[in-house]
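Issue 218. Parser rejects a valid record. Input:
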Amino acid sequence: MTSLAQLGNQLHTGERSIPFVQRRRTWFMAAAALVLLSVLLVAFKGINLGIEFRGGSQFTVSGTEKVEEQPAHDVVAELGDGQVARVATVGSSSVRVQTQELTTDQTEELRQALAEAYEVPDTDVTSTFIGPSWGQDITRQALLGLVVFVVLVAIVLSAYFRSWQMATAALVGLLHDIVVTVGVYALIGWEVTPATVIGLLTILGYSLYDTVVVFDKVRENTLDLAEQHDRTYSELSNLAVNQTLVRSINTSLTSLLPVGSILFVGALLLGAGTLRDIALALFVGMFVSTVSSIFVATPLQVALHERGESVRAHTEDVLARRRRTSGSEDVRVVLEEEATLTAGQHRGQAAQPKRRKGRR
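Output the parser choked on:
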């Protein structure tokens, strides 16, 4: 069985290659289906906004031995006015009850009724009122931060890579990650709170990190594209993805494991709502970001680059040379003719793109 280290070496040298870029139509269709599904979930099922965004009254029952949700539903139903309660268990001895906006008399009546239903003193039931304007301010600031972030990222990536194609592909991958993460929240039905917004904004940087690592390797491999006639731009980009694949996997695992621990232990076992809200956004966002950098961003930038006249002419020249020398356009056939592999050997530097000598 091939170890991860051996696999990484084989992918880096070109001995083994996974056709990420060559099968980009399949990945694009899958990504488009995920985005469409996410949009439909948000449109028809909706997002479960927390009380910070919709406003209302919130009651917290502390120190109770009864953590069932039904007593709270019964008490709120007896209050009348068509009130519907949102009840959640917080930890092992607390219950949180959220309703629509209540009057002062209704608030006091419900507070006493909850204390009686959960068999705790009145002082162990606290009530707060949250206006919807606070949530609207958070939403507005979050959207403003997202717009500013996207604009700055577009400028920085265009300047760093000197390529609008890479900047565009990175932003498309970023938007893909956000939409899919929001779709997961709509599917699960967990509340979207300010902690969720923080988690969504946090994954923006992580989404770009892995993409920039892959793009930097693509730029290194294609730096002297016109001076070599062994590989096309698409093949050199695919080589870059394979060379950074193990690194991406390792980085993702080391990030997902602690976040997954927070999500499982802090949320599912301890019932900590804030930890759950931010951990789910981080977990889904990190996973989707790693996948999109490989299957969406890099293949998309290749598709955009291949629309250029110079890249298209270079590709045609490389393929024409192969047909004349080996009768095939497949790079694997050419490599197999150039080197006969035996057990314990690999292609080594022969499979790497040529670099310009004398550059400092």
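Fixed in the parser; the record now loads. The chain has two domains: 8-49+134-307, 56-130.
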